[in-house]
Structures are given as structure tokens and as C-alpha cells.
Design goal:
By secondary structure, this protein is mostly helical. It has helices spanning 14-27, 32-37, 43-51, 59-72, 76-88, 93-100, 108-122, 129-137, 142-165, 177-181. The two termini are 33 Å apart.
Length: 182
């Protein structure tokens, strides 16, 4: 398999260098996954635009989606990044682990979302009718459903990209879920 290295600032285009500079200012570093998107002239900017788009979903809801999709796709990079972001958004370690398993017993609305996302991801965009009905019964609407699908798609892109590149994880490693359940 082709080996991928994380490109440095000097190895990317001027446009991507400017994005690296903004990431450095905003986050204090350029995450390896983002840097690797910079192999393409446009992919990094496009991906960040997708990630940062206006949404009907709150930050915690987006983190639920990110965690569930990354768990289904077994992406250690995204699990690690979104474990850190989940904590920054107020989830506890135990809540994050539960969310990754596809449930959120601590909040009925979040639980319906986590179950819907897991069902949708596992079934490749064909969730059960009961999963969709439960999402709407929990108070989500059609706009929320569409925004949920966009975040699922966003996360599938990064999960697959890491699965192919296997670039180093530069966040504290997320705990393997199966070790927690044992």
C-alpha cells in the first residue's frame, strides 16, 4: 500500500499554507488529517467549508454524530479527535463511551439521534422506519434530518481518508470501546 506522510507547510500550495496559518492561529496546531487533505489544491478548503457550514444542529449533536459514525467506521483518528471535542462540548468520558456505542441514555433526544445515526451508518443510508420515526418523535424535524445526513457524510469522508492514509493520530488516543465493555 502507498505510504502517506503528513505534508509540511512548505510542501503545500500557497492557498493551503494560508489555511495552515489560520489553523495554527485558531487551534494552536494543524491536525495531521487536515494537513494531509492539503495534498489537493482544493480539498482542505472544501472540507473545512463543509465542516464549518451553518447547521440546525447544536455542537453537542454534531459531536454525537461524529462519534457514532467514527465508531461504526472504526476510525481511531476521528474517535480520538472527537473524544477531545466531545469533552470540550461538555460530555463526560462515560457519556462519550456510551454515545460511541450508539446510545445516550442520559438524554432522550440525544439517544434518538445516536440510534438513528448508528442505524443510518451501518445500513449505508437506509435506516429503519422506526429509527426515523423515533428521531422525529424526539423533536427533530426534516431540516435536522438533512443536516444530520450532511454531518454523517462529512465524517465518512474523514473516516475513509484516515483509513486509506493511516497518518499518525495527533490527539490523545481514544479508548477502544471493546476494552471498556469487557
Amino acid at each position: 500500500m502507498t505510504h502517506f506522510t503528513v505534508p509540511t507547510r512548505s510542501e503545500v500550495s500557497e492557498n493551503n499554507q494560508a489555511i495552515f496559518d489560520n489553523l495554527q492561529k485558531g487551534l494552536g496546531f494543524v491536525p495531521n488529517l487536515y494537513a494531509t487533505f492539503a495534498y489537493s489544491e482544493t480539498a482542505l478548503a472544501d472540507y473545512l467549508t463543509l465542516q464549518n457550514r451553518k447547521s440546525t444542529l447544536k455542537a453537542k449533536e454534531r459531536e454525537i454524530i461524529n462519534l457514532v459514525v467514527s465508531q461504526v467506521n472504526e476510525c481511531i483518528y476521528c474517535l480520538s479527535a472527537h473524544t477531545a471535542l466531545g469533552k470540550m462540548n461538555g460530555f463526560t468520558d462515560d457519556q462519550i463511551l456510551e454515545i460511541r456505542s450508539g446510545t445516550a441514555s442520559f438524554d432522550a433526544r440525544f439517544d434518538a439521534l445516536a440510534k438513528f445515526v448508528q442505524d443510518t451508518t451501518i445500513n449505508r443510508g437506509k435506516p429503519s422506519a422506526s429509527s426515523v420515526d423515533a428521531l422525529f418523535a424526539a423533536g427533530y424535524d426534516k431540516a435536522n434530518l438533512l443536516d444530520t445526513l450532511i454531518v454523517i457524510g462529512d465524517k465518512i469522508i474523514s473516516n475513509y481518508f484516515h483509513g486509506i492514509t493511516q497518518i499518525p493520530v495527533d490527539f490523545p488516543l481514544a479508548q477502544p470501546l471493546e476494552l471498556v465493555e469487557a
